[in-house]
Amino acid sequence: MCNHCAMHAPRGPQMQKVAPNFGNYNLNYNFSSLIQPKISKRVTLRWLLDRYSDVLWEPGSHKYNVLSFVGELDEILLGTTFTDFTDAMVDSLIAALRKRGNSNATINRKMAALSKLLRKAYRMGDIESLPEFKRQREKAGRIRFLDPDEEARLFARILEISDLYGRLCIFLVDTGARLGEGIGLRWQDIQGERVTFWLTKSGKSRSVPLTERAAAAIHASDRRKRGPFAGIAQPKFRAAWNEAKQTVGLGTDPDVVPHILRHTCASRLVQGGIDIRRVQTWLGHQTLQMTMRYAHLASSDLDICVPILERAARRKAG
Question: Which residues form the Tyr recombinase domain (predicted)?
Answer without folding.
Answer: 141-307
